[in-house]
Amino acid sequence: MPTDPAFALPTEPGFRLLGESAAIRSVRDQIARIACSDAPIAIHGESGSGKELAARDLHQHSRRAVHPFIAVNCGAIPEALMESEFFGHRRGAFTGAYEERGGFFEAAHRGTLFLDEVAELPPAMQVKLLRAIQERRVRKLGGQREEAVDVRIISATNRDLAEAVRCGEFRQDLYYRLQVIELRLPALRERRDDIALLARAILTRLAGESAPQLAPEALQRLCAHDFPGNVRELENILERALALATGAELQPEDLLLEAIAAAGQRDPASPLADGEGMPARPPALPLSLPAHLREIESALLVRALRQSRFNRSRAAALLGISLRQLRYRLQRLALHDID
Ligand SMILES: Nc1ncnc2c1ncn2[C@@H]1O[C@H](COP(=O)(O)OP(=O)(O)OP(=O)(O)O)[C@@H](O)[C@H]1O
Ligand SMILES: [Mg+2]
After folding, report:
1. How far is CA 121 from CA 47, 79, 151, 166, 319, in A?
2. Higher-confidence residue: 2 or 73?
3. What confidence tens digit (pLDDT) does each residue in 17-57 have?
């Protein structure tokens, strides 16, 4: 048997959540135990810690596995469209509703509905969602009839939902409805033993079996890094390192860890003041103004996220927009996976 932990396989088959630390093994054990019940599950964990992957593993290990898994980012849907997105609409229910459409509940029938970023649900939608979950019935916008739906609800958030309840931002009744079983995903820095194994798996996924290895010193540096963006940050670091590396092994300097640390430590009083990554002067005409504006917007969004260590609320504050607007813009610019 190889002794390098990077080559160890997860003991439990069929899991996408990799890792051999006690913390992640315990998560897999819990998933195996709770997958079969239909009780709602609430997954907590920092950004990039694997909440969606855990939800998919839960679905895969449940009796619903042959039915759909529908993931909904509750923070990315414009409020005006929410009801019709969740419950569907009849033809003519509103301007532009040219044909009847089913919503997320209908799409997830007999399967799993994954409510990601659940803390971002606006109050009016919280009420409607609670009702649908309790009654197990939904009514399309503009429709008369209620239809039965059979879905298992898994929710996730990287915010403290209990705190959101205390602040009056999240309904207590919905909170209790969703938190029947809780699953907590550990941050990557709480399970540093897994970094080597994950790095190996990610490099193989990105570059195949002949992927370059991490030089011992590069691995050491990774193991000492704090990973505020967790496994997703590790993926981003390695993807960039693969693009930058020139040798057969990835070296510490290919990881650009200092640049990340510096971005996180810039003076918060002048959040976006240094202009890095921005055009120094207006570009020559003719140009495509929409494409240029998209570029500027993307660059600022990415910088705000990096600077806030991928804390979206702080990034939104740096940019002077609401969290909902930030999510909407990230989605529109296909940057929602950035962290
Ligand atoms: N234990 C793990 N094993 C393998 N890959 C992982 C693990 N945890 C996370 N990942 C990978 O890291 C990335 C982020 O995971 P995921 O999207 O599940 O995180 P998340 O907690 O939902 O993040 P966010 O809060 O930003 O939505 C994905 O590409 C996922 O495949
Ligand atoms: Mg997620």
Report:
1. 18, 9, 19, 16, 21
2. 73
3. 999 999 999 999 999 999 999 999 999 999 899 999 999 99
Ligand 1: atom nearest CA of 185 is 21
Average pLDDT across the chain, whole number: 86
Q: What is the pLDDT of residue 267?
A: 39
213 forms bridges with which residues in the sheet?
A: 249
CA distance 254 to 262: 16
Contact 166, 54 (CB under 8 A): no
Q: What is the DSSP string of 138-187?
A: EE-BT-S-EEE---EEEEEESS-HHHHHHTTSS-HHHHHHH-SEEEEPPP
pTM (two decimals): 0.77
Note the pLDDT tens digit of each residue in 278-317: 433 456 666 677 777 777 788 888 888 888 888 888 889 8
> Cα separation of 125 and 59, whole Å?
25
Any ligand 1 atom below 6 A from CB of 52: yes
Q: For ligand 1, pick from 44, 58, 197, 231 the residue to mutate: most ligand atoms within 8 Å of CB.
A: 231
Domains of the chain, each with CATH number or no CATH: 35-184 (3.40.50.300), 277-339 (1.10.10.60)
Residue nearest atom 8 in ligand 1 by C-alpha distance = 50
Q: Is 48 in the pocket of ligand 1 (CB under 6 A)?
A: yes
